[in-house]
Amino acid sequence: ELTVLGKAQEFFQICDLEGKGFVTCQDMQRLHPELPLSLEELEKVFVTLDADGNGSLTPKEFITGFSQFLLEQIALKNDMVPPSEGETAGPVRCEETMSGDEDEEFQFSNLMDRLGAKKVLDDESDVKQLWLQLRKEEPHLLSSFEEFLVRIFSQLQEADNEKNELECALKKKIAAYDEEIQHLYEEMEQQIKKEKEQFLLKDTERFQSYSQELECKLLSKEQELEQLVQKQKRLEHQCTELLSGKEETKVENTKLKLTNQELLRDLERTSHELNLAQKQLQVLQEEASRLSEEKEMEVYWVTETLQREKSGLLKQLDFLR
């Protein structure tokens, strides 16, 4: 059974050459050269293993289901073709000879290769020491220990795949946030520049304080943007640290999700403040327009007053004549 689980893991790696973390029906066709099954039979096996019908198999679904399938095939073959006495005696003697001659180092290395331990374990010395100790002192517990290793490495591989998927999703979201923030920053900078030119043309002294206030807000936004960049760097650093701590993967994933939510809230707050700044600019434009209309009205009333005075002077001049 341990050998079958190791073979199932090997088949999963053959199907998932791209490292997606799941296997599709098309990926399953890669086992055609490895197994005495036709493409149609492989497709039927995939449909049987895909219990939820989502069109893909996770490592756990594939390894568990395919191991059961191989065990059933082996049992069916043994029931259909029972070995003769001579055939039975030969393998037993060979197995006894190999058990006496095989090197412990080779057996342990072969076990680690079947489990794919090199992908999830940096140092195998502790596992090796315990395996050797059980082999020498408690051989009846060795099979249970190896089954325990199969479950542990399968869970670690699944956690590692989940971590990689989360890292990829986080990187995509961070890139999208950076692009959106940069776009908002450029729009705000262009709008502020345009408003500055209009203010200088109309009334520079009156609106200089407002311009400085907007510049301060722009500086504040730049600082917030820098803080977001720093948070992004901390996220990348946390992702790097995840590679060296497989046992803390779930806790770190939770922290990353919380940090991601915090970034979303910061982005929403920044967008809200940008909208407020745009509304303030609109208010300034309306005030500038109102001042222009007031000046035009003042010129109109002065002109009217001068016209009436001129008319009165002309009448007095005619009277004097």
Automatic annotation (TrEMBL):
<dbReference type="InterPro" id="IPR011992">
    <property type="entry name" value="EF-hand-dom_pair"/>
</dbReference>
<feature type="domain" description="EF-hand">
    <location>
        <begin position="37"/>
        <end position="72"/>
    </location>
</feature>
<keyword id="KW-0479">Metal-binding</keyword>
<dbReference type="InterPro" id="IPR018247">
    <property type="entry name" value="EF_Hand_1_Ca_BS"/>
</dbReference>
<keyword id="KW-0106">Calcium</keyword>
<feature type="coiled-coil region">
    <location>
        <begin position="149"/>
        <end position="294"/>
    </location>
</feature>
<keyword id="KW-0175">Coiled coil</keyword>
<dbReference type="GO" id="GO:0005509">
    <property type="term" value="F:calcium ion binding"/>
</dbReference>
<protein>
    <submittedName>
        <fullName>EFC4B protein</fullName>
    </submittedName>
</protein>
<dbReference type="Pfam" id="PF13499">
    <property type="entry name" value="EF-hand_7"/>
</dbReference>
<dbReference type="InterPro" id="IPR002048">
    <property type="entry name" value="EF_hand_dom"/>
</dbReference>
